[in-house]
Each structure stands twice: as C-alpha cells, then as structure tokens.
Q: What sequence folds into this?
C-alpha cells in the first residue's frame, strides 16, 4: 500500500537549515501520529528532525509509507504502521497478509524499528457488521504471517478503537463497553492476551467540550488547575477528562476480566483552529492541551486508577493536513504547519522544541497528481466523522453522570 506517490520531490535546502536536530533536554517519551492527508507536507527525511524536536520516540502511521519508513531507518524511532479499513477483507486471505507483511514490514526491518501493526481504525464504531466481522480474522491472518516469517516476537498486531465503543464512560469506575459490541470485543481481547499485543484507544476530550461547551469546564479538559471531581465508585479524584476517559477504559476491560491488558492512547489532541461553531478550537487551547499533556507525560505518572502504569500516548497529529474533509478543526490538529514551523509554541520549559523558525519555507514536496495519497485509508479519513457522530449524539452518552457532577466543578 501507500504506493502511487509522485516521483518528483523538489529538494528543499531551506528545510535542512530549519531542522534543528537538538535532542530535548528532558527526554519525554511521547508518540506522535504522522498523518499525510495533505498535498503540501515536507519530505519524510525532513520530518525526522521535527519528530526529534518534540522529543517523540514513537511514530504512528495510518499506512506503511515506504518513503517514511526508509527516512526513519537507523533513527531508533519506533513505529506503529497501519493497514486501512479497506484492506481488512483482503487480509483474511493468508497469502495476501503474508505479501503485505513482507513488503511493508519485513522489508524495513531491522533498520526501521516497526514494533506494531494497527489493523483498521475505529472499525467497530462504523457499525458496519461486515467490516466489523472482518476485523479479527484480518488481525489473526496478519499475526500468522508474522509467525511464519519469524517476526511475531518483535512485531505485535492490534487495532485502534474510538472511545465510542464505551457505553458508559462516567464515572470512570463504571466504564463499560457497548453491549452490542461485546462479542467482537471478547474475541479481540482474547487475541491481545494470546499474542501479547496492546489495546489501543483514541480519546478526545476536545469533542466532549465541543459538543457541550456550556457544561464542560474548559480547565477540566485542558489539564489546567481545577478542583476536579471525585468518582463516587472509587473515591478517586479526577482533575482532567483524559484520565477519566482512560480509566473508564480500564474499568470496562477489568469488568470483562482483562485487568492486565496494556492500554495505549493511540490518538489524542486539540485543534488550533475551527469554524465559528466549533467551540474551543483555538491556538491558546491547543497550546494548553498539548503542552500540559506533554508535561504530564514527562512526570511519568499514570492515571488515578493505574498510578504506576506509564502513559503511552500518541498525540494527534504531527501536521495540519489540508486535504482532510470535514469542519475546519479537522485540518488543524497539527503541532506543525506544512512548512515545518510550529503551529504554536508548546512552551515546554526544559524541553527543546524547534527553535528559530522565523525562516519559513516553501513546501518541501508536492504530489504531481491532485489525488489524495494512498495513505488516506477510509478509516483514517472517516475518523472525525465517527467521532463527530458520537459526540453530537451526546455528551450524555459518554458522560451521563458528568453532567450531574458538573455543578461541583463550577
Ligand atoms: C525496537 O524497539 C523495541 C521496543 O522498545 C526495543 O526493545 C528494541 O530494542 C528496538 N530495536 C531496535 C533495533 O532498535
Ligand atoms: C452505532 O450504533 C450505536 C449503538 O446502536 C449508536 O449509538 C451510534 O450512534 C452508531 N454510530 C454510528 C457512527 O452510526
Ligand atoms: C533564535 O536565535 C537567536 C540568535 O541565535 C536567539 O537570540 C533567539 O532567542 C532564538 N529564538 C528562539 C525562538 O529560540
């Protein structure tokens, strides 16, 4: 996959000048989502220093773009590669899965440290029974291919879920999965245990705020100081929504008997710009959300429920992506603009973010065709739609009790 890129990529010397390859003073092990639904992003080799500049040691892709995997060879950066929703049915066939793994994973090992393959994105919340039915067989098939190639010890297989797989997410101690997804999930969770792979969830406090800005306190979603809320079921205090969301997932897993399954936050982030009706999508808020999040990660604390489990979080996203459909916010989740300058300063004391960026530069690459890259898998393009749908269906669905508790916060 991820083929069909144009072959002409104007060399950008300016970009190299800009790229400050200074390692962060405080090494924060964050992950970053490198989405490419855009026609103006820099060359992958020029992206390496950008990833370093924010202290990211892990990168998640929505495809297995060979240009990216080559550019990051021998950098020590760990990769989750993706396989789009449109490939699930095909992957059920053993030969197809093996071909895919050979071409997109094995070919880049060991120089590029691919540690995980994410099969599909937010598949179960599309409510498409045929697609949902293909998910586990595709995961099994890709895993079998890894076993055959002797790669299953170093590369795990997983899938990333939307938080909307939860029926109850508040209070966190009452977290529970949607009943109608129970069968799919039970089998997927067994697969994780058998193969030792992590459970991935995309969690966006932003969408909860956007759909209910009058009730959801901004400080609570932006990790700003606030009194927080106490979960009556556990007596644990929460002062930010992301941790409440993560603990709801832990509770949902625990209630099915999966107390030890490692959980990773495969996406979270905040847009720096939005349409007039998109509350909260501002530069200041994005800077607070992502800056505070990185500071939290640097402290290496876990959530109230799992204080000793280090957070494993992938920020969404590396770049603003100009070809993403949907409202303006969709195209403005990036920490960087396409020219490689920061979308805003994260303001991380002690962490070297990209410095002198006044230089600005012309786009490092342009695809000769106007068509979206193959990386725009249906799953990825539709992320926000799935999220939109669940969030507009209601905060009440996700945070029913939160609404009752909110008066305590205000
Ligand atoms: C790849 O990452 C894994 C997980 O952190 C690590 O254990 C392994 O040593 C890395 N491999 C290489 C070749 O850097
Ligand atoms: C999927 O189904 C659930 C439960 O029936 C519903 O609440 C949700 O809105 C649906 N989601 C989409 C994206 O259609
Ligand atoms: C950029 O570099 C100049 C001179 O080297 C320095 O004075 C300035 O503080 C730097 N700006 C930033 C944002 O790091």
A:
């Amino acid at each position: 996959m991820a083929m069909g890129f144009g072959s002409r990529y104007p060399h950008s010397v300016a970009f190299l000048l800009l790229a400050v390859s200074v390692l962060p003073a405080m090494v924060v092990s964050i992950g970053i989502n490198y989405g490419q639904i855009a026609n103006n992003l820099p060359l992958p080799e020029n992206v390496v220093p950008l990833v370093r500049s924010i202290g990211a040691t892990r990168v998640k892709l929505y495809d297995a773009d060979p240009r990216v995997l080559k550019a990051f060879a021998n950098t020590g950066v760990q990769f989750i590669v993706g396989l789009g929703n449109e490939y699930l049915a095909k992957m059920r066939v053993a030969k197809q899965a093996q071909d895919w793994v050979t071409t997109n994973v094995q070919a880049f090992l060991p120089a590029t440290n691919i540690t995980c393959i994410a099969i599909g994105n937010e598949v179960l919340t599309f409510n498409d029974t045929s697609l949902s039915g293909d998910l586990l067989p595709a995961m099994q098939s890709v895993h079998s291919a890894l076993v055959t190639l002797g790669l299953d010890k170093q590369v795990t297989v997983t899938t990333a879920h939307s938080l909307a797989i939860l029926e109850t997410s508040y209070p966190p101690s009452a977290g529970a999965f949607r009943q109608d997804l129970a069968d799919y999930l039970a089998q997927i969770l067994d697969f994780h245990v058998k193969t030792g792979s992590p459970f991935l969830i995309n969690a966006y406090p932003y969408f909860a705020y956007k759909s209910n800005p009058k009730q959801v306190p901004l400080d609570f979603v932006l990790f700003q100081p606030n009194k927080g809320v106490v979960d009556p079921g556990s007596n644990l205090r929460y002062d930010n929504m992301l941790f409440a969301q993560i603990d709801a997932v832990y509770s949902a897993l625990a209630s099915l008997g999966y107390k030890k399954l490692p959980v990773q936050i495969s996406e979270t982030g905040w847009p720096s710009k939005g349409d007039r009706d998109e509350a909260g999508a501002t530069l200041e808020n994005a800077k607070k959300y992502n800056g505070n999040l990185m500071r939290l990660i640097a402290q290496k604390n876990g959530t109230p429920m799992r204080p000793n489990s280090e957070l494993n979080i992938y920020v969404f996203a590396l770049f603003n992506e100009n070809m993403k459909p949907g409202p303006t916010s969709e195209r403005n989740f990036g920490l960087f603009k396409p020219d490689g300058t920061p979308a805003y300063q994260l303001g991380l004391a002690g962490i070297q973010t990209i410095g002198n960026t006044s230089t600005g530069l012309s786009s490092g690459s342009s695809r000769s065709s106007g068509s979206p890259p193959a990386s725009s898998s249906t799953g990825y393009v539709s992320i926000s739609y799935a999220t939109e749908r669940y969030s507009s269906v209601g905060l009440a669905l996700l945070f029913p009790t939160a609404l009752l508790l909110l008066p305590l916060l205000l």
Observations:
- Residues 76, 78, 110, 113, 115 surround 2-acetamido-2-deoxy-beta-D-glucopyranose (ligand 1) (CB under 6 Å).
- The chain is about 35% helix and 15% strand.
- The CA atoms of residues 93 and 119 lie 14 Å apart.
